[in-house]
Amino acid sequence: MPYDTSVPPAPHPARRRRALLAAAALGCVCLIAGCGGGSGGGAAAQPREGGGGTSSPPSLSPSPAKSGPAARTTSVPPSPSKSASRTVSGPLSGKTVVIDPGHNPRNHEHTREIGRQVDIGTTHKECDTTGTSTDSGYAEAEFTLDVSHRLRALLRAQGAEVVLTYDNDRPYGPCIDERARIGNDARADAVVSVHADGSAVGNRGFHVILPALVRGGAADTSKIVQPSRDLGTRIAGLFVRATGSAPSNYVGGNTGLDTRKDLGGLNLSTVPKVFIECGNMRDPKDAALLTSAGWRRKAAQGIADGISSYLRG
User: Are 280 and 218 in contact (CB under 8 A)?
Assistant: First the structure.
């Protein structure tokens, strides 16, 4: 939940059907054209500029994820934020990816610190927020760390250098401006901020948030808008294939993509960056997926395949 507590209006019943059709379309796009990003607002595949055309994404099971009982175990153990030395080589060797797990499980213990205002270029916002949770109490911050650990393992297995903005190794934060700075300082080839939404019951599905064109103060996204759209489009298409989840029925017009100019983590980034809202924690059906370890594994796989597709061109 990227620092926005507003609740969108409940969707019209027909929108869910359109969302499922959009999900199928996104999956077909990936199969046919490799999920290349274009300059338009939808999720249609286009050849990546300067990338030598499109490449086919890794083969994934297209079958939908099955909801099941809550399972909060993390199969990938935590480790320090900075990547450890290793000898793995692979298709992503030489690439640096920064993973930004949304929020911090202990933010609620430090409301004063996370409530202070920080400069996001065009305005000021809170350092961070506590995030949302399911009705059963499964916190967004717990979810984002779990998915981020899984994602890190998948990317490292392909040879990427992976940095986490934090790894449950600090009492609160980092603030949104510091999260952006970590990606910038790493000169990351791609940054993905992992989140889950907190919207109204009946609002379902995932969406990827892209940076808008913003210039003001310390913010200038002019160089990252297009590559970030390419990154986000690929992640959206491959997330559908890996999880079986439909694009959001309440944000992005069933494309799985949303462009925003009010998020400091995007405004202050100088490297390609997107957010992904993996589902709505306040909807019982989405919550059943988000609390499933099996589904979280698929979510991490979809994000990893989108990043890999983008980095390989």
Answer: no
Tokens representing residue 244 in the block: 């079986």
Q: How far apart are CA 272 and CA 192, in angstroms?
A: 9
Burial of 265-304, coded b for 16+ CB within 10 Å and e otherwise, reads: bbbbbbbbbbbbbbbbbbbeebbbbbbbeebbbbbbbbbb
Q: Annotated catalytic sites, by residue?
A: 277
Count CB atoms within 10 A of the CB of residue 156. 18
pLDDT digits (tens, 9 = 90+) for 14-43: 444 554 455 555 555 444 434 443 333 333
Residue 47 to residues 38, 53, 212, 231, 234, Cα–Cα distance (Å): 7, 5, 21, 12, 11
Contact present, 163 and 182 (Cβ < 8 Å): yes
The kind and range of the H/E element at 154 are helix 140-157
Query: pLDDT band at 47, cuts 50/70/90?
Result: very low
